[in-house]
Amino acid sequence: MWHGLWPLTFSGQGDYFQSPPFWDGRASGALGAEPTSGRRTVEVPAHVADRRRGVPQSMFGDDFFDRIHVEPRVLNLGNVSSVQQRAVRVWNAHRASALTLTDAVLAGGEGIVLTAPGATPLPFAPLSERTWQIAVGTEGPPVIAATLAFQFDGFDSIAVVITGQRIVAWAFTPDWSRGVLERLAWKTDVLTSPTQVEQRRGLRSAPRRSFEATLIVDGRERVLLDLAVFGWGGRTWALPIWPDVQWLADDHALGVRVIACDPSQRDFRIGGLVQLRGKTAFEVEVAEVETIGTASITLRHPTTKAWPRGTRLYPVRTARLAEPPKVTRLTDQVASVSARFDVVEACEWPQIPDAPMYRGHPVLAQRPDESERLSNGWQRALLTLDNEFGRPFVLDPADWAAPTQTHHWRMHGRAERATARSWLYTLRGRQCAVWRPTHADDLALVANLAGTATALDVANVGLARFAGLRPGRRDLRIELRDGQAIHRRITAAVALDDEIERLTIDAALGVDVRPRDVQRMSFLVLSRGDSDEAEIEHHTDSDGTADASIVLRAVRDPDTDTPAPA
Taking CA 479 as the corner, what is the angle to CA 474 and CA 481, rounded to the nearest 5 degrees? Predict the structure, then answer.
């Protein structure tokens, strides 16, 4: 390999120098014709010969060789929930010098086992490499902050920083007769004007998430839970997401990395953790996910145990006990334990992807579950001045009430549960707004409507008299029996008589509609969540059965006054 500049050789008058074959020979002051191939000889006048001086240039070999390489310099282990094995390689890159390692010191290494290739002093031949094995277990301080320093004779110390966090696998399963309660908590800053126009700002990029469950433990598991909470109750736990459990359909041998499973609509994520659990809390392993496929997940490191068919597989989130568990002693061998965990990592979930859109917001077209009674109401911002002597003075500066309505999801299957969760993440507590139909027979069409007409006659319900085209009662959702759903804005309303009102809408429906073709005509209300918190009550661990309820409150956003898109 050629390094640096080519030397010049001079021999009096007619001195010359030779360039490498790839050099074009066009140096400043070069004379004579260029040869077409091979080496080139260029005559240099004697009066310029003393101006040519070569300067050494640093090349790749100068930066790479004749030094000591340690790889990696930083070992970030992340969450350590089982024994983690890592290798540190040390290479003497000196091409002609043998070195001696005088010492390799591990500082702050409680719970870390270092396996060296030999005892110090350890000779390193030129261009030789040796490997140190590092094993980090779950025993030791919660926070891993260690340093491995290599000291060579005649050189400064070279340090490898080891960081991470020890977490403990929570291997106890809930009592599903009482279910599992999941809470999602966003945080929204809402600024409201006197006319009830709002400016909303989300203060959390992801919701805080918590789980609450009751566990029945007996025998050795009862003692194991007691000792685990007693000794390590303040640490971070690898909490299995109980509602997302599945059972392995095949046997998996020791040392495999690919786990055959169904990861869809569950809380698996790349870089996250999974838990494999056998029949008891003593048979458990936590591993890190490297990739997620359509019918399998690939672990970053091989499993340390063999897992038979029927093994439970959970996605895992890191969590802490929100408070000490409450224990009810049932017998001298059995106890009921109530525990609540707060997840300590960000929990993302995709928003609703394919909802129908109207005036820039998604439409919550799914009807609520009405097996339980749903509540409706109105919120009005009244200002009251009362000196406690005369009559109080009451003012309604907005001249508007915000309708509220409960929406209840009853989910059967993981697909429905994933959809409901996506709606919660779309609302983001109180921050974002969606269009909510009242899902009631609010209006009844009384005459045929041509597809090109913009006026429709409905039964008189007092819309023209009381609503006044205010937000919350000026948008319609027309559901036809053939499955179509049409959204329109009412631009005018007039009572023709005591029986009929005529409404003018902003655009024709595009289809001829007869009264018997209409399944339901509902008011469409732009709404947000009335609370930043939402709860999902999981009933089973096998089929995704769950319930969730939220209260939606109408908003008076100015952007809904813009014309509807064509």
Answer: 160
Pairwise CA distance, residues 182 & 205, whole Å: 19
Q: Which two tokens stand for residue 186?
A: 């966003």
Residues 1 and 7 sit within 8 Å (Cβ to Cβ)? no
Residue whose structure tokens are 């945080």: 187
Residues 6+ apart with CB under 8 A from 545: 411, 412, 413, 538, 539
Q: Which amino acid appears at position 239 of this protein?
A: L
The pLDDT tens digits along the chain (566 residues) read 434 444 444 444 444 444 444 333 334 444 344 444 445 565 656 555 555 567 777 777 777 888 899 999 999 888 787 788 899 999 999 988 899 999 999 998 888 999 999 998 999 999 999 999 999 887 888 788 899 999 999 889 999 999 988 888 899 999 999 999 999 999 999 999 888 899 999 999 999 999 999 999 999 999 999 999 998 888 889 999 999 999 999 999 999 999 999 999 999 999 899 999 999 999 999 988 999 999 999 998 888 899 999 999 999 999 999 999 999 999 999 999 999 999 999 999 999 988 999 999 999 999 999 888 889 999 998 888 988 888 999 998 888 899 999 999 999 999 999 999 999 999 999 999 999 999 999 999 999 999 999 999 999 999 999 988 889 999 999 999 999 999 999 999 999 999 999 999 999 999 999 999 999 999 999 999 999 999 999 999 878 899 999 999 999 876 554 444 43
Look at the block and give the residue holding tokens 């277990």: 137
Contacts of 334 (CB under 8 A, 6+ apart): 216, 217, 218, 222
| pTM of the predicted model as reported, rounded to 2 decimal places | 0.78
The answer to whether residues 369 and 420 touch, using CB atoms and an 8 Å cutoff, is no
Q: How far is CA 350 from CA 207, 272, 343, 364, 421, in A?
A: 13, 17, 18, 16, 9
Within 10 Å of residue 70's Cβ, how many Cβ atoms? Answer: 15
Residue 230 backbone class (left: φ over 0; alpha: ψ -120 to 50; beta: rest): alpha
**Closest-CA residue to 352 (of 343, 341, 364, 340):** 364
A 10 A CB-CB count for 474 gives: 21
Give the 3-state secondary structure of residue 337.
Answer: strand
Phi-psi region of 399 (alpha: psi -120 to 50; beta: other; left: phi over 0): left
Pairing of strands 74-80, 158-169: parallel
